[in-house]
Specification:
The chain is built from 11 helices and 8 strands. Helix 3 links the parallel strand 5 and strand 6. It is globular. The longest helix has 14 residues. It has a single domain, classed as 3-Layer(aba) Sandwich (Rossmann fold). It has 265 residues and is an alpha/beta fold. The protein has an 8-stranded mixed sheet with strand order 1-2-4-3-5-6-7-8, sandwiched between helices. Helices cover 38% and strands 20% of the residues.
Length: 265
């Protein structure tokens, strides 16, 4: 994927893109404390007729992190819609793929902007938490006081096999969380996203084909949360990924890529 930059409402925004000019648009939205790079090679494994974009949300990755921004799901939703207009695909339907926090944002877009969304993929999605889970609290502690040791320990609890946490992931997180205002963005986003919920009544408003993916060993947002989405969204299917934790697309990329291709084709 190619690295790209735009200025959007005063924010310098980074995103990764491949397949520009193709008509099948897919937007990838990352999770808390993450960035577009976390999707690794997943976008490039999709069929060649797809146009894939992975964004760095405000406050995360290399995108600006303003201290005066309200890091709410609604603000992120509005940002994504404005971003799509800026890159000239807002008049065409697109597929949304969101992980964790990105799943919460993607679900809100599917509810409020359903006319724009062709298909929805929710991967270990937040949106139904009423408090931080213990692993999220440990993640927050690591973000506020980032060291090689405590960041690695937090990440190792998010995966099925601790050996799957590369040093590059730890180093990248520490570098980004030490950027100006990054800790504020992280803490504010976590506080909001774990104290608000989409709600079952609003989930029922999603009327588009929806794929739900979940790592069976997810300790960040436990597997039982998948039932909220599967049992409530009418046109949905659930795929549980064995031997995977909170980010199955990173732990089992080949398996997840195959599931995505079967769903999208």
């Amino acid at each position: 994927m190619d690295e790209c930059w735009i200025n959007l409402n005063g924010l310098k925004v980074r995103y990764l893109e491949s397949g520009k000019g193709k008509k099948n648009h897919i937007l990838f939205i990352h999770g808390l404390g993450s960035a577009a790079d976390r999707w690794m090679k997943i976008p490039d494994t999709l069929p060649s007729n797809f146009h894939s974009i992975a964004i760095d949300l405000p406050g995360f990755g290399e995108t600006d992190k303003p201290s005066n921004l309200e890091y709410t799901i609604e603000q992120f939703r509005q940002f994504v819609i404005s971003f799509l207009k800026e890159v000239s695909i807002s008049n065409e339907k697109f597929t949304l793929i969101g992980h964790s926090l990105g799943g919460y944002i993607a679900a809100e877009i599917a509810i409020q902007n359903q006319n724009l969304v062709k298909e929805l993929v929710l991967i270990d999605s937040s949106g139904m938490l009423n408090r931080p889970t213990p692993i999220l609290e440990e993640y927050l502690d690591a973000a506020m006081n980032p060291t090689q040791d405590n960041v690695r320990k937090a990440f190792e609890k998010m995966v099925a096999d601790p050996s799957r946490v590369p040093t590059l992931l730890v180093d990248g997180f520490i570098r980004r969380i030490n950027m100006p205002n990054a800790k504020h963005a992280f803490e504010s986003t976590l506080a909001y996203s774990t104290s608000t919920q989409i709600g079952l009544d609003r989930l029922r408003l999603i009327k588009i084909p929806t794929l739900i993916l979940w790592g069976v060993h997810d300790k960040v947002i436990p597997l039982e949360h998948s039932g909220f989405f599967k049992d409530t969204i009418h046109d949905s299917q659930l795929e549980i990924i064995d031997d995977a934790g909170h980010a199955p697309f990173a732990e089992k990329p080949d398996q997840v890529s195959e599931i995505l291709k079967n769903f999208l084709i």
